[in-house]
Amino acid sequence: MIPIAIILVFAVLMYLAARVPVVAMLASLVVAVAAFVISYSQGSVFGVLASYVLFPATCLAIVLTRGVPDTETYDRTIAKWALIVMGCIIAALVGMPLLPIGPFGIIGMLFIGLFVGMIISYKLKSRDAINVYVVSTIGACMRQNLPLSQALESAAVGLTGKRPQTLRNIAMYLTQGNPLSTAIRLGYRKCPGYVTGLITAAERIDQTPEAIMSLEEDMTKKAQEGVVFKPVQPWYPVMLVFFALAILTGLTIFILPKFKDIFDQFGGSELPLVTRTLMEFHDNCWPMLPLVLLLFLVAVPVWIYVKFRPRRPENPRMFSTIGDFVKWHLPVLRWFERNYSLLHTVELLRLSLNAGATIDEAIAHTLVLDVNGHFRKRLTRWRDKVLQGLDVSAAAADSGLPDALVWAFDKKLNPDKTPTILETVEKTCRSNYNYRANMLKMILWPCTTILLGAFVGFIAVGIFMPLIAIIRLNTAGVLP
Questions:
Q1: Residue 180: which of 203, 204, 198, 154 has the closest Cα?
Q2: For residue 248, what pLDDT is reported?
Q3: Cα(151)–Cα(167) distance, integer angstroms
């Protein structure tokens, strides 16, 4: 009975994978758990084995199903990354017993992690370089008042690689009559969302060259900051804690019990307090190790996927929505998200007002920017209140927007000076962002270094204190 039910469920999941992929993935997880529980209780080996295959087979069917041309559906992407994660887990489970045990095995794992990290870092740097190249080339062509499609074709002549091919793709879509934002979105699918969002909004107010120039300045400055030497890399504390815990696990299993046996032979003497505390710390942390390892195996692929996948402000995806929610509600990140969103909003408002747009039109243009989703909701409420006839400054205050916007549109305090004040607010946001980011680094890194030093010192003292105690016990029995 169970094999027939498994086959029918498998057929239904394959149908759902072709029609409704998200439902198929969720249903396969639920069915896999139910099939495992029922099959295990009834002793069906076929059902237990089939429960392990249901979810991977469903993901594989989703990946192999032909999607809509020229689209990137998040369901197929999630299924692909789920297969990659499962493949990595299986490879780790198969390969870990083959790794040499001891310090050489740990060193080998360290070098593998460093190698993978270097590849990811190189890919991210390469993507940023392509972004700067594409935007700066478009900006140079616009400043020379050249026909953009022909100028991009000419810039790509005689060159090979991703950069000139990207320019050719953008030129091709421009030749077909698409606006620049659409041409970039179709010809360069990895283009960051804040680039396409700002260009889309600038096209509506005929301020595309100014937007390109602003993007070029921001990206060039970011690239220059990226080449500055960093004495400590962000992943260093994580790697240090990981390998310290791995070494502590080996010592707790093989070394510290021997010390305990030695102390028992000295008439029931106890291990030093710091060593006992270290062993209790390990015993309390050990049950959480599988959960931490699973979280690590899930969090790292998700982080890599989010870093390489461009945001789409016109159609926010699941991870973008989750990331916006987390960053908006965390104490420190909330300020940076709020300042970043305010910076781009003020920049576009200034361009719109200088182009002769009305205030409600200028606010409507900001809704396509790549800002935090919660900040965009407040912008939407602001636009709706302005359309209802409420004062612009009062509407901004009622919508929960920053005080800088309320002050900029206050007609009593700043009559007919809104564009100038918006420019001042824009400069202030840029300087405040850099100042607080540098200040945060100057505070966090010393604190992190002190905590890491204390953690490693705690492990070292806990390991060597039994040796000192043994020496004292031996000398006490020999010396008069």
A1: 203
A2: 80
A3: 10
Q: Which structure tokens are listed for 39?
A: 């099959």
- Residue 32 CB burial class (10 angstroms; 0-12, 13-18, ≥19): buried
Q: What is the pLDDT of residue 220?
A: 74
The one-letter amino acid at 234: P
* 3 state DSSP class of 182: helix
Please give the pLDDT value at position 101. Answer: 46
Angle between the N-to-C axes of helices 21-42 and 2-19, in degrees from 0 to 180, rounded to the nearest 10: 170
Radius of gyration of the chain (CA): 30
* Residue 391: partners with Cβ closer than 8 Å, 6 or more residues away: 411
Q: Please enumerate in sequence order all residues whose Cβ is within 8 A of that of 159, keeping only pairs 6 or more positions apart, or say none.
A: none
Identify the segments of the chain with pLDDT beneath 70: 1-2, 66-74, 88-115, 159-161, 223-234, 267-268, 289, 414-415, 476-480
Amino acid present at 359: I
Pick the closest to residue 329 from 372, 382, 377 (CA basis).
372
Residue type, 10: F
pLDDT at 98: 47
* C-alpha closest to that of 449 among 228, 226, 227, 231: 231
Pick from 388, 389, 385: nearest CA to 398: 385
Q: How far apart are CA 157 and CA 162, in angstroms?
A: 13
Angle between helix 103-143 and 148-155 (nearest 10): 130
Report how far apart, in Å, the C-alpha atoms of 226 and of each of 124, 198, 223, 344, 428 are: 11, 23, 5, 21, 22
Give start and end residues of each alpha helix (H) in 355-417: 359-365, 373-387, 392-398, 403-408
Helix-strand-coil percent breakdown of the chain, rounded to 5? 80, 0, 20
Summarize pLDDT for 348-367 with one digit per residue, the tens: 888 888 888 888 888 988 88
The closest of 140, 305, 309, 128 to 227, measured between CA atoms, is: 128
DSSP string, 409-427: T-TTTSTT-HHHHHHHHHH
Supply 272's token pair: 């030093």
Backbone dihedral angles phi then psi of residue 65, each to the nearest 5 degrees: -70, 135
* pLDDT at site 476: 67
